[in-house]
Amino acid sequence: MKKKVPVFLVLLLTAVLILTSCSSSTSGSDQNQPQQQAQQPPAQGSGPVDVSKSESSVVKLIEASNPANLPAAAKNRPDTLIVGTTAPSGKFNPIYADSVYDSYVTELVFDGLLMNDEKGNPTPNVAESWDISEDGKTYTFHLKKGIKFTSGQELTAKDVEFTYTAIADPNYDGPRMDSVMDLVGYDEYHNDKDGKVPKLEGIKVIDDYTISFTLKDVKASALISDFGYGIMSKDYYNFEKGNIQKLKDLFLKPMGSGAYVFKDYKAGQEIDFEANPNYWKGAPKIKNIVMKVTNADTVIQELTTGGVDVDIVAARPENIKMLQDAGFINIIHYPSNSYGYMGWNMRLDKFKDKRVRQALMYGLNRQGFIDAYYKGYGQVCNAPVSLVSWAYTDDINKYPYDPDKANQLLDEAGWVKGSDGFRYKDGEKFVIHWMTYTGSKYVDTLIPIVKDNWGKLGIEVVPELMEFSTLSTKVYDEQNFELYNMAWSLSIDPDPSGIFAISQDVKGGFNSVGWRNDESEKLIEQGLRETDQQKRKEIYQQWIKLANDDLPYLFLSYSDDAYGISSRVKGLKITPYEDWTYYIYQAELVNP
Amino acid sequence: MPGTITKRGEMMRQYITRRLIQMIPILIGISILLFFILQLAPGDIFSTMMNPHMTAEMKEELRHQLHLDQPAYIQYFYWVQGVLKGDFGDSFYFKQPVTRVINTYIWNSFLLSLVSFILSVIISIPIGVISATRQYSRFDYFFTVVALIGISIPSFYFGLLLIKWFSVDLKLFPVSGMMTPGVNFVGMEKAADILYHMALPCIVLTLSSVAGLMRYTRSSMLEVIRQDYIKTARAKGLRERVVIYKHALRNAMIPVITIFGMWLPGLFSGAIITESIFNWPGIGPIELLAVNNRDYPLLMGINLILALLTLLGNLIADITYALVDPRIRLK
Fold this sequence. Notes:
The complex is a heterodimer of chains A (592) and B (331).
Chain A: H1 7-21, H2 33-39, E1 60-62, H3 72-75, E2 80-85, H4 100-109, E3 114-116, E4 122-124, E5 127-132, E6 138-143, H5 157-167, H6 186-190, E7 203-207, E8 210-214, H7 222-226, H8 234-237, H9 245-249, E9 260-266, E10 270-275, E11 288-293, H10 299-304, E12 310-314, H11 317-326, E13 329-335, E14 338-344, H12 349-352, H13 354-362, H14 366-374, E15 378-380, H15 403-412, E16 416-417, E17 423-425, E18 428-429, E19 431-437, H16 441-456, E20 460-466, H17 468-477, E21 483-489, H18 497-500, H19 518-529, H20 533-550, E22 553-566, E23 569-570, E24 588-589
Parallel strand pairs in A: 2-11, 19-20, 19-21
Antiparallel strand pairs in A: 1-13, 3-4, 5-6, 6-8, 7-8, 9-10, 10-11, 12-22, 13-22, 14-21, 14-22, 15-22, 16-17, 17-18, 23-24
Helix pairs in contact in A: 13-15, 14-16, 19-20
Chain B: H1 2-40, H2 56-65, H3 72-84, H4 98-133, H5 138-152, H6 155-169, H7 187-225, H8 228-235, H9 240-269, H10 272-277, H11 283-292, H12 296-324
Helix pairs in contact in B: 1-12, 4-5, 4-7, 4-9, 4-12, 5-7, 6-7, 7-9, 9-12
């Protein structure tokens, strides 16, 4: 399922490489919009929405003013849709794809047991329905009959079993381990290198169309997080336990039951697909799809010259303007499922005091920064949850820019202004060494604002710029930092344990700031074990309020994602939780 | 005298063999240095893997699979073990054999670099020669300025400018890529399609290399035409054309030709910025990606190839030098 993929990396890389290299690739949104969307009723089973008649309040549409202005280059390919993408790495396999770009390919070629709707709720796909046992640990899926792989073979429970068993293979080295490691019998199967354990106990094929998964413990996020991966054909991909290399040898020959058939891959250039006429949801209307490699520097030019029909662009006023001027491009933008933050090392005395953390939050003009950087396509972030999540709540402290309050809090915390204008406590000057990464406009805009704002509070800020991998090593692997900034791109499920659990406060773990809050730990655990979504929501909102008050991070920004879509493309649906691949089989090409 | 020729050929053969054998310890040395220098950079491929679904233990397990939990010298031995069997390992990032990854991209870089190299030679040598013969003329000043611009203009800026002019405004060339997407041309049509896509990146690369080569030719030529034998040739009453292009140019080219050998690795190393701007599927952006992801096997593979080509380039330069200048003796 979308963004279940370790998109986290991607976002960060986006932040570092693409986004920030000159033109950001994610950015802000309409200011009034999160409140509206939080109250919106779940759009159950919503079909594809024409971008020009989008019913979603999250997705904003800027309609093409002159659809007839379509360039000849685009008119000349009536059967072919070209979608721009960052170069994928060529791991075209549902259990190995580790970037959104590789996932686009697997989403076109494969179908998962479940999908998700606009609100992030699980929806039927290959599995028509599912039951959850009384104790909440066993999931039984009932597969739809008659789904065929493009090889002609029917997709049955044994293919599902094969796919999930492959992830548990002792030699599996992809990014999906977490989706099987809580299954009963995982350790026995995974740690057995000699092939003595032939089956994973927690996966049971009941009949051709029924399969059950039994977990060691209740995992509320399982349904949305673990059962969306494309199902691989056992006949086509089968390998002997341990010999997972065979799967990797087929990276460039993916075959599944999806809407499109993989035709050709030219590394660094394009991937070609052809419609699967026997697709079980109905034959796709667009005959050919080409994913063409584009880059953030020239994506606007690609779109306006008709070189590509659909591509993600940085939501910035200048880009939107250029696309609008072309006339034939519809633009959609929506808050992305991510946030930007600064992490402070709470193991250090100066950041241990909540008053200091709050003072820094009040003392930074975050709105000013957002206005300067996103120019209307971003908003201030106040809590570690995305604007589009069902767990989002607006009922939190907004920390408006208030230097007086910041000064007062710092005074209370014992940091007293010396004669030189800087604050001191026990003879120690308040200096913050801030590690950040090079080549980012985001960072370049942020540095002077932080230095100035906190300087006025009597705090000296020393930014240190470094290459991203170095930064991430210092922050996560060594935990050797005072303050850093990065961004998280989030999963659909709001469970924050991967980032904020105390167990993640180890070298290499993601609780790099060292937030050890018992209340938070309790709520995280409760949230993970509660399967009733309404109750879960309450738990997470409580947790969000806690994080908003205790401030494990200095929360910075929400940004918008934007897509340019040629007016020749009709019926394409893209939302924060639904990739363009989800309903592509219903989209069509027209001559406007 | 056939005997002399044989003797010379024999000497040459011995010389080349000796140089090739000498390369082996040099390459081993380079590989050791490279491996340890790469390890000096903080972090490994898992440091940038910001996936909260991947716990510290899972990362540890994956590190163990790739021997990244071992000290650098042990990792080096694992790597050497593979290389001796002809296996350069799997790229951490692509999860494919390093040789396959390199082979996928390097020829695209070579194609682009070779064409722009040939173009820059064709353009820069005549201009260099004319600038030298008409030193301080308007022609000379004009191309001196052009050369300065070519050397100073950043390629990402020039590339974007060309895209604006030729792709967006005039719609003459595609914005990026190497082939028209979705169309599978064959034969001459394919070649034409590639040339069409190559035009803009080629201009960027050519402009930057023309400048240097032109100045190099000019100064070498200036030195030669002040020599006594050129004066003698003129005094003999030879036509100026013959003096310049037959007597002077040949001698002036000796140092220029030898620098071609040095360009050999450059033909394969890929132009990171130009290739990125134009989405040319070359090895340049792949190298950058390998660095950012600490993909040691891939970095070792690429850099060793470049090291080998540098050594071969030096050898070729030495040999050409001896061939074009009989005064040079190979020992």
